[in-house]
Structure formats: C-alpha cells, structure tokens
C-alpha cells in the first residue's frame, strides 16, 4: 500500500506575526507550491534522505550557501520530529499502534526560508501520512498544535500556530489565538473564509533573501516576554488589523483591505528591522500601485493588485530585483 499526502505553502495576509503572541491572523494556502510525503510498509522504519540532506558539497562556498538557505539540517529532522510527536499523541490518547514499519520519503517544491512555511508543510504532510497508515483520526483543530510542537519542542524552532492551521485547514482562514482559548483547549478559534471573497492577490519572492525565520523573530520574542510596552502594543495593533480584515473581506471592501495590508507591514516595521533589500521589494510593489506586506518573516511579499496592467508592472519591476511574481492558486 502506497500512501501519498501533501501540504501546501501558505501566505499570511493579515495579522502576521501576532500568531505567536496570542494575536489574530488571516492566511491563505498557496497551492502553487507544496510538500509531499510518500509512505509504504517495509520491514524496517526508514527515512529516505533527499538532496538537501546530503553532507557532500562542491566546495566551501556551496556549503555556506546551502546552510544559508536550508539551515544546518534538511527535512529529515522535521520528519523525525513529526513521527515522534505522532507516537506521543497516540500514547496520550491510549491508541495502540500496530507493529508495522514503513519507509517514508519527502519532496518539496516550496521555496525554503522565504516566509512560505516550507518546514511546517513537511511536518503536516508527514502527520497526514501517519494518520492514514495507522488509521488514526486526530481532530482537525488539534492537528496544527501537534505540528507546532514537533518544531518547537523537538527542534527548538521559534514559530506560531498560523502556518500549521492554514496548512491543515487550507483555503482562507481567520484565526484567533487568544490566551484564554489557547490555555483552555490548546488551540484557538479557526474560521474558514470563502476564498471567492478575496480580491486579486499576488505573491513575490526572492530566494536570495532566504533566512531561518526563528532567528528573525527571536528578538521580538524576548522583548515581548519582557513586557516592553511598545512591542506588546504594536503586536496588539497587528492583531487588530486581522480582526478588522475579517469583516472587510466578507464585505468585499477591497479599498480598505488594501490599506490594511499596507498597515500590517507598517506596524511591523515599528518593532522589527526591515532589511534594505526586503524594503526595496515592498516599495517597488507599492510604487506600482499595489499593496504589500510580508507573507511570513521576510523574503516574500503579498498584496492586492487592481488589474492585469498593474500585475504586468509588478512582473516587470520586481523582476529587476530578481524577484518572481505569481498569482496564488487558492481552492
């Protein structure tokens, strides 16, 4: 029996990065890119390495560039962490797993470390494959929390629930991560929004701006935990953007939504350093008449464009910065 599962890239539209701070977000799944898992029964449990898991390099510069893009590990630690958390979940729920081993292999087309949630997609796809193989049902609201624990508790990655929620639910989702909800039930309030209500969206990304998002957000975490008023207040404002955006999308008030996308990034810039090259992408898109904010921690942007003429300007102007522009495919 061959099992194949997928999880798609995601883009934060509003509220990012407040999800890790009991905030609110709206995200979309981006089916242009995905991570896939292939799993089949075998005598021993084996995780097949991929090219990015190799320890053989052309030269020292190749090693440096690989680490800059992928970090010090490929996808195997993510698969291992997902398997471990799956087993622990089953034990906590008194689910007895049959004595069956498997061989598992991952593939990914998601550009790494540019804010499109490539790592969490591998984890979510792995959990889905394990659920099928062992015939275990994990409640949908619980699944994102389990995926988050795999990265945070096992691999020490600084992350929030947003990526995992949208990759589990797909489409477009409004998320409320209020402290009361998280502490009471272990997950937030997740409300799907009809993607047909969304305006024309574009995404632009530059792989040469890749970085490990946990490193980008670590300083904010420390300042938030210390209760720095400006950081705490700004993150609350960012969450408020998503809260307002929920109603704005349903009313299809695209002019106001355009303003909120820009406002999200502008709030973020008050507490986080925006590199010159990331800032150049934002300003180029806005000069074309589109709105622009980060999809994640940087390296890619998302916004609203008015018509095909504006989209063509985005293609041309952002290409000058070696950025690729796509129209996100959302189901």
Commentary on this structure:
It contains 11 helices and 10 strands. The protein is 45% helix and 20% strand. Strands 1, 2, 3, 4, 5 and 6 form a 6-stranded mixed beta sheet that branches. Strand 8 and strand 9 form a beta hairpin. It has 2 domains: 192 residues, Ribosomal Protein S5, domain 2 (2-Layer Sandwich); 129 residues, GHMP kinase, C-terminal domain (Alpha-Beta Plaits), CATH 3.30.70.890.
Write the layout of secondary structure elements.
Blueprint: E1 2-14, E2 24-41, E3 46-48, H1 60-70, H2 76-92, E4 102-108, H3 118-134, H4 143-155, H5 162-169, E5 172-176, H6 179-185, E6 189-193, E7 201-205, H7 213-225, H8 229-250, H9 254-271, H10 276-287, E8 293-294, E9 300-304, H11 308-319, E10 324-326
Parallel strand pairs: 3-4
Antiparallel strand pairs: 1-2, 2-4, 2-5, 5-6, 7-9, 7-10, 8-9
Number-wise, the strands total 10
Let me know the average pLDDT.
93
Gyration radius over CA: 20 Å
Described by strand count, sense and barrel closure, the largest sheet is: 6 strands, mixed
Proportion of residues in helical segments: 40-55%
CATH topology of the largest domain: Ribosomal Protein S5, domain 2
Percent of sequence in beta strands: 15-25%
Number of spatially distinct domains: 2
Indicate the overall shape: globular
- Named at the architecture level, the CATH assignment of the largest domain is 2-Layer Sandwich
User: CATH top level of the largest domain?
Assistant: Alpha Beta
Report how far the terminal alpha carbons are from each other.
28 Å
Backbone structural class: alpha+beta
Number of helices: 11
Strand and helix order? EEEHHEHHHEHEEHHHHEEHE
């Amino acid at each position: 029996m061959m099992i194949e599962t997928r999880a798609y890239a995601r883009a934060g539209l509003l509220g990012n990065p407040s999800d890790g701070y009991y905030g609110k977000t709206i995200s979309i799944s981006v089916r242009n890119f995905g991570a896939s898992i292939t799993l089949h029964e075998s005598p021993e449990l084996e995780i097949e390495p991929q090219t990015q898991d190799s320890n053989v390099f052309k030269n020292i510069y190749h090693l440096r560039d690989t680490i800059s893009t992928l970090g010090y590990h490929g996808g195997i630690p993510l698969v291992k962490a997902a398997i471990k958390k799956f087993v622990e979940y089953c034990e906590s729920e008194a689910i007895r797993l049959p004595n069956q081993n498997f061989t598992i292999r991952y593939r990914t087309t998601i550009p790494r470390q540019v804010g499109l949630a490539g790592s969490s997609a591998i984890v979510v796809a792995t959990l889905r494959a394990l659920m099928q193989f062992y015939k275990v049902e994990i409640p949908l609201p619980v699944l994102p929390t389990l995926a988050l624990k795999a990265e945070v508790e096992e691999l020490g990655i600084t992350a929030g629930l947003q990526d995992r929620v949208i990759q589990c639910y797909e489409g477009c989702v409004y998320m409320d991560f209020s402290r009361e909800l998280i502490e009471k039930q272990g997950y937030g309030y997740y409300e799907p929004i009809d993607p047909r209500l969304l305006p024309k969206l574009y995404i632009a990304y530059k792989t040469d701006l890749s970085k490990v998002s946990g490193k980008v957000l670590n300083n904010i975490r420390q300042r938030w935990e210390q209760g720095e008023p400006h950081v705490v207040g700004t993150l609350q404002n960012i969450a408020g953007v998503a809260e307002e955006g929920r109603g704005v999308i349903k009313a299809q008030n695209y002019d106001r939504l355009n303003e909120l996308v820009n406002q999200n990034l502008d709030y973020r810039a008050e507490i986080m350093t925006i590199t010159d090259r990331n800032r150049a992408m934002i300003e180029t898109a806005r000069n074309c008449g589109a709105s622009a904010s980060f999809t994640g921690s940087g390296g890619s942007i998302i916004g609203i464009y008015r018509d095909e003429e504006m989209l063509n300007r985005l293609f041309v102007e952002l290409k000058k910065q070696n950025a690729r522009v796509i129209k996100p495919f959302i189901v």
